Amino acid sequence: MPTHFGESEDLLSRDTIAALSSAPGRGAIAVVRLSGTETEEIVGKIFRPKDSEGKFGDRKIRVGRFVGSDGEAFDEGMAVMIAGPASYTGEDMAELYCHGGPGIVRALLVAASEAGARPAGPGEFTKRAFLAGKIDLLQCESVADLASAETRRAARAALSHLDSGLSKSLESIWERIVEVGAHLEAAIDFPDELEPGAGPAVQGRPMDEKELARRFREIRDVLERLEKTYSSGRILREGARMTILGRPNAGKSTLLNRLLGEERAIMSPIPGTTRDTVEEVCDIGGIPVRLIDTAGIRETGDPVELEGAKRARQAAASSDICLVVMDASAGPEEVRWADNELNGLECPAILVANKTDLSHAKMPERSNFFGKAVSICSVSALTGGGIDSLREAMASTLIGSEGDGLGGNQPFLARERHRDLVVRCKKAIERGADGLDNRASPELVAVDLNEAQRALSELLGRDYGHALLDKIFSTFCIGK
Known about the structure:
Blueprint (H helix, E strand, L loop, with lengths): L16 E4 L6 E9 L3 H8 E3 L12 E6 L5 E10 L10 E8 L1 H13 L3 E2 L4 H8 L5 H12 L3 H11 L2 H25 L19 H19 L2 H9 L1 E7 L5 H9 L17 E7 L2 E7 L9 H15 L3 E7 L4 H12 L5 E6 L20 E4 L8 H13 L16 H22 L4 H19 L5 H8 L7
Parallel strand pairs: 1-7, 8-10, 8-11, 11-12, 12-13
Antiparallel strand pairs: 1-2, 2-6, 3-4, 4-5, 5-6, 9-10
Helix pairs in contact: 4-5, 6-7, 6-14, 7-13, 13-14
């Protein structure tokens, strides 16, 4: 596949950047990173090694003191130089390890600035790695996803992209498209004497129309399977919103606390205790889920309760899934309310029959629900009974069976940009296949193949514009 272009010719003329690469705030150790042609010179101005070995060795940690422009030391720490091009950015880099007090970090960044470095922008280290050809654009985005991962499973999924899992899959599709395009170009260049080996990159017997049609179908099917992974991939990367709905005193807040494993929401036997939404993030089967506890929904003249119910509806409307909690001991009226509530939801839902620890509790029959298909889970939020099964149902509803392999060997899409470009590529392939079926000229079919190639090239960052890079890297944290 061709390499990207755009700014690589300017790599050697860039200034040197510096930024805090560890988390902001107070800590035991902080890490300040530099990258650029003047890195070693700048480090020499602000770091005084305790040994007398002279120049820095590549990747050798040295202990010393950090000094300001006046030569006065303000901290003791360590420094390591990483020579380009075998560094993360492809340039000379350094990492400075200082004590994590905010005053020390500020002093070190000021010292680096006064010595000639400028503050790095969001994601600028990774952007330089991309422009140096160290990683592709998909891998760049996976760096940001790793830094923001809220669960181990989400981190593992991002790591699979950093390891080129998706890139290799897309490059394989790209190569198939190129191969088909080569045979079409051969037909264009040698319409009357198409022989084995004729035309660009054509090896062996040239493809006939039947073989070309089969290749188009194969490429389209692979793209379609990839497109279907987006819903699960997005939820795994971004997390999901899950709203808990129910009538007053159904046990919604108790359920929230049980799922979180801590007392986050106020619990009371008095109906209407929760008046506003309460939100917390928890790990559900490796998926970061924002749980939203809401006010009880009932007919009332209380304006505060009415506003709470309104906010509950708004939260449900923007959720990926809802838990409809009913009191299993409350009788037929509760079942009718739950059925009506489920039918009014647009997102997937799970019916949670709560308070099953009570002797007069009764599990609702599936035949009681005449609307959409729904999972029914029996739980006791008070004792914890059935909570593990509910967690499994929540994870399965969110990402389904197709999400089981995410983060392993299965390539998947996790960003809207990825999905849109795969869809653009698929549509171009479908237009080409239709043209082939309708005996369109090879030149017209080749136009569609070129469009498909461009979509994949943009997806991998082989072909890009400054606006695209600015948009992607603006979401990064500074120092990454």
